[in-house]
Structure to design on (180 residues):
């Protein structure tokens, strides 16, 4: 049984079947993808004992990219990435991408919270601004209206703009005197 620190050992046989040595069962690329998504490490060895982890991980990425709606890598990114193979910058690009993704992973929870707040109410800030603009418009309209009266106070003490017309009783409207 593998310890929590040690990577899970997977063996790939000549018949292309994957065998999880730690659990004693056959496995699939989909199961290995789930292991990777859970943040667990694994290594894959072929029948000769050679480490083929990179090619298996690349195959998992390839399969994930081909699933409908699962594409993570933009086409332009893939083209740019291909340009760096064999280039003197290859090692630098490789390390840069690794550090960038490690940073993203480390700060993932903070990013998720920020995104959730931003998209929780995507129009929240706009709604607040529209509400404020409407209040300002009502106040300006009340001040400019020849029939405006001083702000009436509601039961909770907040100022409420008046349009200059009040109702004394149902069906009866009264015009207030202009402020003077």
């Amino acid at each position: 049984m593998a310890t929590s620190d040690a990577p899970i050992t997977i063996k790939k046989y000549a018949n292309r079947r994957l065998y999880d040595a730690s659990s004693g069962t056959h496995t699939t690329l989909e199961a290995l993808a789930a292991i990777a998504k859970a943040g667990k490490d694994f290594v894959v060895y072929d029948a000769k004992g050679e480490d083929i982890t990179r090619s298996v991980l690349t195959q998992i990425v390839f399969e994930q990219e081909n699933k409908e709606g699962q594409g993570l890598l933009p086409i332009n990114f893939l083209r740019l990435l291909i340009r760096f193979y064999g280039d003197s910058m290859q090692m630098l690009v490789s390390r840069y991408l690794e550090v960038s993704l490690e940073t993203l992973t480390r700060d993932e929870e903070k990013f998720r919270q920020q995104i959730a707040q931003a998209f929780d109410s995507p129009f929240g800030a706009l709604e607040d601004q529209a509400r404020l603009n409407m209040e300002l418009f009502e106040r300006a309209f009340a001040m400019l209206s020849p029939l405006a009266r001083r702000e009436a106070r509601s039961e909770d003490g907040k100022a409420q703009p008046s349009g200059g017309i009040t109702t004394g009783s149902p069906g009866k409207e009264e015009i207030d005197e202009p402020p003077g």
